[in-house]
Amino acid sequence: MHNLDAAGHVRGESQYLDDIPVQRGTLHAAVYGSPLAHGKLLSLNLEAARRAPGVVRILTAQDIPGENQIGGIVPDEELLAGSHVHFQGMPVALVLAETEPQARAAVKLITADIEPLPIITDPREAQAKGELIVPPRTFRLGDPAAAWAECAHIIEGTAENGGQEHLYIETQGAYAYPTDGGGVRVHSSTQGPTAVQRHTARVLGTGMHKVEIDVTRLGGGFGGKEDQATTWGALAALGAFVTKKPVKLVLGRHDDLRMTGKRHPYTSDFKLGLSADLKLLAYEVTFYQNAGAAADLSPAVLERTLFHACNTYFIPNVRATAYSCRTHLPPNTAFRGFGGPQGMFVIESAIAKAADELGVLAWEIQRRNLLQDGQVFPYGQRVEDCNAELSWQAADQKFELKKWQAEVDAFNQQSPVRKRGLAVMPICFGISFTKTAMNQARALVHIYTDGSVGVSTGAVEMGQGVNTKMIQVAARTLGISPKRVRLETTNTTRVANTSPSAASATADLNGKAVEMACRELRTRLLRHAAEDLKMNYEGLEIQDEQVLAAGKPAETNWEKLVSTAYWKRVNLSENAHYATPDLWFDQTQEKGHPFAYHVYGTALVQATVDAMRGTYDVDAVRLVHDFGQSFTPGIDRGQIEGGLVQGLGWMTMEELIYNQDGRLLSNALSTYKVPDLYSVPKVLDVEFLETPGHPNAILRAKAVGEPPLMYGLGAYFAIRNAVRAFRPDVRPEFSAPFTPEKVLLNLYAARESAAAPAASQASGAEASVRN
Amino acid sequence: MLQFYLNDQLVRPTLRAGSTLLDYVRYHQHLTGTKIGCREGDCGACTMLVGELQPDGAVRYQSMTSCLTPLGNAHGRHIVTVEGISQPAGLTPVQEAIVAEGGTQCGFCTPGFVMSLTGHCLGGQATDEAGRAAIDGNICRCTGYKSLERATDRLTAQLLERDAAPERLAWLVEQGFVPAYFQQMPAQLAELRAETVADVAARTGGQLTEPNGTETTVASYLLGGGTDLLVQRADDVLAAEVQLLYGHADRCFIRETPDGRISLGAATTVEDLRGSELMQRRFPRLRQHLKLVSSTPIRNMATVAGNFVNASPIGDLTIFFLALDAELTLQDAAGRTRQLPLRELYRGYKQLNRQPDEQLVEISFRPPAAHEVFNFEKVSKRTHLDIASVNSAARLRVADGRIQEAHLSGGGVGPTPLYLRRTSAFLAGKDLNPDTLRAANEVAQQEISPIGDARGTEAYKRLLLRQLLFAHFLEHFPAQFALQELV
Ligand SMILES: Cc1cc2nc3c(=O)[nH]c(=O)nc-3n(C[C@H](O)[C@H](O)[C@H](O)COP(=O)(O)OP(=O)(O)OC[C@H]3O[C@@H](n4cnc5c(N)ncnc54)[C@H](O)[C@@H]3O)c2cc1C
Ligand code: FES
Ligand code: FES
């Protein structure tokens, strides 16, 4: 089945935030962001802006009726800067004008007197100065200190990864109206309606019951609208609350890029011990996470880095420590993979470095250390239903790893300028919110008297196809055509206290709730049928809208059944609550059972480097992925392809460059490059690994949102291998993304010092660009 | 008066000619199918089709990013949005292909892809490659493009049928690619043109009449495709008086002159340059070279003059034509003309040897002769739809293992696009061997002054220029030496 929203999308009829018909009297908002990354806000000069054409009002921290606080995990983030600014672009004032261009023009007239304070952009510097968002955390398994003695080889090094801009094509935004009774209704482009509601209520000094959040769909989220949508929702609501007029706030792309947080850059130190036969024996790793100026979701992201520190390998002795470091960048946030990719990049780097030093291929190490049932993850959960070996072997067989490697080697033998590299990227990703309490969801299902069905959940549609999945679950459970089912907007008055659409768990959690509600309705309807038509309840079912009794058509169908039930005063609405069973985590011990299940897969990635120009192509990605029992294979394949390409982008061309003043230099789509049509691999094979799925997965179809992103890491190592094919004496540092610049600098690194040249972080760079 | 067809309606906007087509369509006509992702031409979410009547009486449809299309450039044309191609019920074959292949997820980029592909079906070649090129200006963050490639390839077979049909447009209408009103467009645009001859005359001399010129004009701009000006100063252009040059018949031509030179009208678009048979004959690799310049919709808008006058140090066409020693004809407001070598246009960062009222009208150059070679190199973070970190062009005459003449240019390595005068002079008369090239690089390194920015550190740009210098020779004389001998 296709994505049910697709027809509206291709006709241009699907409604996004900026498409909502504008109410009369709507004010348009624009945000004045701090020009400095850190300082004491002495005064704001708003006079010129107030007098600008069309300006109705300018709001600052003083205008907030409630609490000036939007921090989720840690209350450390003001909505509008009060006494201090903490990052460039931090919202300081909100201009409300009659038109959007007027509001934008007025913002340009605002100036601020800010006493500069020292700026930190480097997480290690922050850590050294004690600037931590939360206390550090350490996961432990076995006794690495004792294990080093047994290791035949010990490899040490550093790995760094850059951040990643979400680049949802629809920028952030919200549209708020004052409602009857002194409340506000906010249309928000958010993955977390409840977060927007909770923080807006806090900011307005009112109850959550007076704040209604409604979401139709997002033009992309990828984590960037999980916590970070709150600012814009709350600002629009503040405007509407204060002026009693509708207020619309849609960020321009430049503002969106410089004001919002991104995937976390990390810098990490690793030490890896191996036995003579390439078994991983001990691993110590320290992660320094660049959290930006406020906690946002950083502590949770940090935790997931620890959970995925060993990727899909079993290492008996592990000590993994993580610091969440406060810097003066925009607060970094959720992004598909949520810290997992950063953790995996370090272990893969350590393995690559070991391979360099031992003169073996990295995949010889990888394949010897894959997880097996009965082992234990460093966080205490037992490895069960493990498909690490299975997916590796399937990939090996289908794509003939050895033969492929031989072809690459042969190519390199005869090609002086173009060089190829092959890398294997196996993954293991845990499914669930690691904060156990968040693994709950509700669904509200109405059957209308004509037999049509309305379903409300806490899930937000952002392209991942959750609407289609929910409709499928409802239709299958009720035994009716999906055409009868409509998925309603996500609205906090219909489904309350929701978890955000995140952690790949949305379809599982909300789908289970829909399934439960629909089961209950089905039972109720069939009991009514049994009574009404004097049939035996046992053996009654609904298939293709026909009621069957012991497999034979009974004298009623869906429409009749619903109608007669209504007249018999049967309740045709149901609200169900689902909480994932058996989850727990004890943070004092850093042990527990945090994940409902794990998803596995293995990708083979080939890249070709042009040693003349330093450019490269990722030629082919061929992968085997553990889908469980997919019931929407088209949508799930789309998640793999899209996630993979996002991961490739992060590892290759997507380079966020901040200068020492905390100013974003890659501040437009002309300087921050995401993959285009021509940069995706020519060959992209996705093989479905048939596995039984998992009972905690909706209809046994495993979660598919985040895991594929991590296949993209393979591109980094494939390019690195290609560089080394040209320059075997060079050991490129582990510094993602592997931009053409880093490739070229590595290819021509001075012969005498084979150590790689410095990364391209624009320390000396002042100009953003010379266009 | 500014007037054009928006889908099947004749519209006469009262906005200023420098407003964007996008804002007019979304916020004045309330057609919200067209999306906004960047307002900088870089995402394609706002793609529309712009149809222009051709001398042969047919309408040629090109994709453009409406966020950078000055409303004035719509004058007399047929503007098509997603609302203008959708049928009352059901899906067009393009829409159907995208749905069937899973080519839409969040859907925000989708109307842009639909328009680009519809444009491809209206006029593109029936090959997979041409289909993909049609969507090279559309960014999708969700799908990873594979499904969109599949959708595109699916259309190729249908387009082969189109080519076999006796009447292309009739076939497309019959198959539901576009609604029937498209068949009236040639006649309607012809009628519009007749009505607006006077206006066309008016814009040749001055600006288009401003319908409600109540605001004081702050400045006056010459406007080509708008792909630089509307990125850099959209707000100013909106408030300004503009002189529209885009698509101006007197400024759009590519011809060979009797002395064997090629003469280009200044408003020739990059895509027309790329499509020119004459140019392709003279530059056999022109299509690949210019494929590295922006994207299909941007090339449909971008003019050669705009590239020169924008004076970006990494302007691709500027670099291309610097190596060809192009000569410019400039004309001031009084109609006086003068000639100026392109190499003398640049004085400093965005400083031009040009009066504010001087218009670039013509570009003339000697194409490479049979015994000469020409090469263009560009490296950017993303190969396509990206600005160069460094670019370079070379025109070389080599005979008997000796470089007779060399003309090299380099972009991204100084405050202006550079003709590498000293390097070129150094190479002339030298034997073509690794020593010469290494020595030439030494000279080039003295001549350039790159700075570190978001497109690369200084060290990288210096290294890259060296590599591109070598690449010119390795591309054309691969038998002579190997890369390994040079580095
Ligand atoms: C997404 C995107 C990608 C791009 N990629 C590239 C790229 O890869 N390579 C590249 O080189 N450029 C690129 N550009 C820049 C731009 O497209 C080119 O420089 C283009 O050639 C500019 O032409 P235009 O007609 O659109 O200029 P306009 O914006 O209309 O004008 C630019 C300047 O030239 C002046 N001008 C225009 N015509 C004349 C004339 N006849 N006489 C005197 N002055 C005139 C204008 O007043 C203005 O100052 C890109 C732009 C965008 C938006
Ligand atoms: S909005 Fe991105 S290209 Fe126009
Ligand atoms: S479908 Fe979301 S950006 Fe293309």
From TrEMBL, chain A:
Gene3D superfamilies: Aldehyde oxidase/xanthine dehydrogenase, a/b hammerhead, Aldehyde oxidase/xanthine dehydrogenase, molybdopterin binding domain. Its cofactor is FAD; Mo-molybdopterin; Mo-molybdopterin cytosine dinucleotide; [2Fe-2S] cluster. Keywords: 2Fe-2S, Iron, Iron-sulfur, Metal-binding, Oxidoreductase. It comes from the Bacteria. One of its GO terms (molecular function) is 2 iron, 2 sulfur cluster binding. InterPro entries: Ald_Oxase/Xan_DH_a/b, Ald_Oxase/Xan_DH_a/b_sf, Ald_Oxase/xanthine_DH-like, AldOxase/xan_DH_MoCoBD1, AldOxase/xan_DH_MoCoBD2, AldOxase/xan_DH_Mopterin-bd_sf. Belongs to the xanthine dehydrogenase family. This is Molybdopterin-dependent oxidoreductase. It comes from Hymenobacter busanensis.
UniProtKB/TrEMBL annotation, chain B:
It comes from the Bacteria. GO terms for molecular function: 2 iron, 2 sulfur cluster binding; FAD binding; iron ion binding; oxidoreductase activity. It holds the Pfam family Fer2_2. InterPro entries: 2Fe-2S-bd (IPR002888), 2Fe-2S-bd_dom_sf (IPR036884), 2Fe-2S_ferredoxin-like_sf (IPR036010), 2Fe-2S_ferredoxin-type (IPR001041), 2Fe2S_fd_BS (IPR006058), Ald_Oxase/xanthine_DH-like (IPR016208), Beta-grasp_dom_sf (IPR012675), CO_DH_flav_C (IPR005107). PROSITE patterns: 2FE2S_FER_1, 2FE2S_FER_2, FAD_PCMH. Gene3D superfamilies: 3.10.20.30, 3.30.465.10, [2Fe-2S]-binding domain, CO dehydrogenase flavoprotein, C-terminal domain. Keywords: FAD, Flavoprotein, Iron, Metal-binding, Oxidoreductase. SUPFAM superfamilies: 2Fe-2S ferredoxin-like (SSF54292), CO dehydrogenase flavoprotein C-terminal domain-like (SSF55447), CO dehydrogenase ISP C-domain like (SSF47741), FAD-binding/transporter-associated domain-like (SSF56176). This is 2Fe-2S iron-sulfur cluster binding domain-containing protein. CDD domains: fer2.
